[in-house]
Structures are given as C-alpha cells and as structure tokens.
Amino acid sequence: MEQNWKNSTVRKLSEFVRRLIFGRKFTVYTRNKSQDELLEELVLLRRELNAIGVNFNQAVHRLHTLDHAPQMQRWIERFEQDKEHYFSVVGNVELRVKSLVELWSR
C-alpha cells in the first residue's frame, strides 16, 4: 500500500487511505523498466553525438587556421560537405530522441 501511495498523486498517506477506503478515485503512476532503460541509453547516445559534433567542429576550425596546399583545400571542401551531411543526420536523430523522451516521460 505504501508503494502505491508513493506512486500516486496524493500527498498525504491519510488522504490516500481515505480515498482507498471510500472508493474515491486517485491516480497511480507506473513505470516501464524497459522504457526507462531505453530512455537512459538514448540520452547517453544524444550526449555522445553532441560531443562528437563538438570535436568535429574544433577539428575543422583548426584546419581552417592552417596554411593549405591546393590538395588540402580540396580535401577540406569535401570534408565540409561530409560535415553538413553528418550534422543533418545527427539533427534528425536528436529530434527523434527528443520526441520519444517527451512521449515516454508523461
């Protein structure tokens, strides 16, 4: 009974017991362990993707500060295209993870 009270929206145990005895309605929240574990993994994935993106930007910024041979310049241009694609994909993943977190957090 105590666990159900702690998972309910009723703040006082005495009020919870009165509602239970007299058959009044109250809300009890339940958690899905597999969803909780998945959410934790998704949050870690989002953080890791963000960290990779930060490192990626730092590396590109350092490359731009150096003097470049023509071959290096072509490589950087191609790298920029790959970067744009990467950030587009990561952005889509982040939006999807965010929507899943919001859906399952309710």
UniProtKB/TrEMBL annotation:
InterPro entries: MobC_2. Pfam families: MobC_2. This is Mobilization protein MobC.
